[in-house]
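Record format v2
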Amino acid sequence: MDTDHRPQAEGAVLTPSAEAPPVAAPRIDCRDIRVFYGADQAIHNVSLSFPDRAVTALIGPSGCGKSTFLRCLNRMNDTIENCRVEGQILMDGQDINDHSIDPVLLRSRVGMVFQKPNPFPKSIYDNIAYGPRIHGLASSREDLDAIVEKSLRRAGLWEEVKDRLQAPGTSLSGGQQQRLCIARAIAVRPEVILMDEPCSALDPVATARIEELIDELRKRYCIVIVTHSMQQAARVSQRTAFFHLGNLIEMGETEQIFTNPREKRTEDYITGRFG
Ligand SMILES: Nc1ncnc2c1ncn2[C@@H]1O[C@H](COP(=O)(O)OP(=O)(O)OP(=O)(O)O)[C@@H](O)[C@H]1O
């Protein structure tokens, strides 16, 4: 069981953010989302929006639907055969599930970083260059080089890899591989970055590095992160949504959720009474 239930534990790398959530219009607006696996309903009528330039954490006990909900945001559930999503997800006013939307393009606008780092079996350079190439984002080799460098810099990896760009991505450490995957997502100019427990396969030092990076990236992107760690949610997010049994129980500023939750179920979860 995950024992990491307290936001203020010793050794926290960043202090819990006390910033108020931004008032900007939502980057993604989800209305009345219902998700089914065959006849089983995994998400029940969830309405939730995600602002730009902020990190929103999705927390809740195992099986409560965090990953299922996250996957709705870039239509990754389309790839699961018996999965059906109902409701509206608006991005810039357009429903992402509309037939006219190309899911491949959508996934470049809404990038995703997974639990286990999953670099392509290619060089460090090609891991980053692949997306810009297929999306036609570079008009010359110099352009592509510049995108690769900028993405690696933004992901805080450039200094560590600049002299071995032709080495395989898989030759990097786990934490470096996860930053490579973040750089790969950034390279196609996303507006939103989804992270599904991005640190769960990493040691504390690599985790701290990724958390610092998330804090840096939120100045530019709308970030949604699923995490089992209360400490992590408190450290990196400005807003937190608590899920239970496929329902959204409470959503608010991270500080409020952890210090003064409105719902008893939220309080029970964050104080470690269940989950
Ligand atoms: N591919 C699938 N087919 C059928 N049911 C699924 C599938 N994926 C998830 N589920 C079910 O949907 C529910 C929500 O699962 P989900 O993985 O979204 O929860 P979670 O909160 O992310 O869990 P965890 O924290 O353990 O990763 C669970 O009951 C799970 O068994």
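The domain at 26-271 is CATH 3.40.50.300 (Rossmann fold).
Confidence is low (pLDDT under 50) at residues 1-22.
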